[in-house]
Amino acid sequence: MTIALDGFGAEQGFDVLAEGARRAAADGIGVRVFGPERSLGLSGVEGVEVIPTTEWIGNEDDPVHSVRERKEASVVRAAADVAEGNAQAMVSLGSTGATMAAATFGLRRLKGVQRPALAVPIPSPKKPVLFLDVGANVEVRPQHLVQFAFLGAAFSAAVMEVREPTVGLLTVGEEAGKGRPEIVEAHRILKDSPGLDFVGNIEGGDLPAAKVDVVVTDGFTGNVALKVMEGAAKELAGAISEVAHQNPIAAVGGMLLKPSLGGLRKKFDPDTTGGAILLGLRAVTIVGHGSSGPDGVANAVRMAARSVRVDAVGRTAALLREGGAGRAALADEGTAEPAGGPA
Amino acid sequence: MTIALDGFGAEQGFDVLAEGARRAAADGIGVRVFGPERSLGLSGVEGVEVIPTTEWIGNEDDPVHSVRERKEASVVRAAADVAEGNAQAMVSLGSTGATMAAATFGLRRLKGVQRPALAVPIPSPKKPVLFLDVGANVEVRPQHLVQFAFLGAAFSAAVMEVREPTVGLLTVGEEAGKGRPEIVEAHRILKDSPGLDFVGNIEGGDLPAAKVDVVVTDGFTGNVALKVMEGAAKELAGAISEVAHQNPIAAVGGMLLKPSLGGLRKKFDPDTTGGAILLGLRAVTIVGHGSSGPDGVANAVRMAARSVRVDAVGRTAALLREGGAGRAALADEGTAEPAGGPA
What we know:
Two copies of one chain form a homodimer.
Chain A: E1 2-6, H1 14-26, E2 30-35, H2 37-40, E3 48-52, H3 63-69, H4 74-83, E4 89-92, H5 96-107, E5 117-122, E6 129-132, H6 142-158, E7 166-170, H7 181-190, E8 197-202, E9 214-216, H8 219-243, H9 248-268, H10 270-273, E10 276-279, E11 284-287, H11 294-309, H12 312-322, H13 324-331
Helix pairs in contact in A: 1-11, 3-5, 4-5, 6-7, 6-12, 8-9
């Protein structure tokens, strides 16, 4: 098992990225890092190989153009490494757009998939919810949302081991007509799709409440919603910790409660999940948090390794093939604009 | 001071709505309730007058069509009551779409305002943030987002007493080119708008972190983001309370901490704020939470009364007139598509 790791893009610096690679390698995962050899300081570390790379693509660069032009960029080389069979999956903490472009061009899409989607398991207190798309596609057409529903359900069943996952479409009201036009149309297609347990529209509050197993939205709404949720959890935790310093009684209470809260804090720590997974490609690609600490980097690599181990791609592809409706929705661009009126 | 209150739409029933009206009236606010006389049971309550109304518009009805056709519906009559001068502001806990349509048709827009926006003060731990649009306009053009920025800044300054409020545009990255096309275009106009402290793009996490005083977005994204945030706070509070029941030490800690947490809980309780305010109209309209308890109803009426007392509409209109750029952006549809290229 070998994972290709983009050596650039860690906001906390090369040391943190290198330490993450070290920790993942200590678990027996081979790591091939594409980055600056000297800054990473990983020479001689067992299980880690640095492939010297000095070029990289940043958040300010146009993703598609940069990936096409700069073949020596770390994220492009990591994707090529997987395509050549030197590694089984890739991980990047850098620009989401560049990672998506490099993976889409370098690793290719599963048969029939028009747009890969970025999915993230949300650590809801009740049960994990797979949320997609959280940033790969800022604008979508109805058939893309339909594809995300099938991709998400297949991944949830294959990798998260949810039997017959329920799927909800995120919008501004439960009624079928609520939301942007592409959502109304996607709802119409999904409700008649066999092979999918589509429960209908859900609202923002249903995401943290884990009302369904898979929540489908476009990459703009998903990115904003994910960051709002992470931010709210962080601010609330901070406010509670502040309250626990307001007076001695509260302080004692906070001290007694703290050990039990540790598990909850860990559950909500972005470093725990490791990152998001790009669904719909022929190899696993993990987009880690730019702000990751060493554990976040290591967990992103571990997430990639685990996904390879359970054959996430193969099982997702098989489930997509099995579902007749899924296949139809995936293969036929025209499905989204049928000749008939609303059902 | 008299407020027109829609007597339908309270999910917890007529008793809860009636009790809210009673509590607001006890503060010396006159309340005219449009609803079923017998179910409300408010006869003889000082300061409360029930105007018998049996027709209403629900979430499943088409808002614009229903408001046009059903002149006897409670929310339409409440708006007419304000237009006729019997009340100074209106409050509804019912369908947001119907309330907006009734208010827009019945109360009319401020000069130059194309689309009213629904704004809500977010109870961030750090400072209140005005967030708009949270549901009035599912689809927007660039100039609508520009108008929301000016409306929000004016309300923040006039009513929330923020000196020179900072304004941010909610999207998926800090760089100017990030987001849907209408956001990129709105950013371009806003950054050259004098009379507005536009700080640029902000991301989802900046909303709960209160990075700016006014956060601007479309009504779809705003509605989803608001409900995600409220839901996350609720789920996290529930998870913490569950942890405090896991073992005796944690339970004692929870007990000691509880009194201090009360203030925080109250701050985040949707009933505390009372609701959202529709900006851009010639009279105050408050959209309360459908799920409000008696305090939520009373606080929605109090919010309406307070907004009238500080002359929210007059001061917002004056601030809009003063800001030359604001006036230009508001008055001229063409401002959004100037002849020149990007600056």
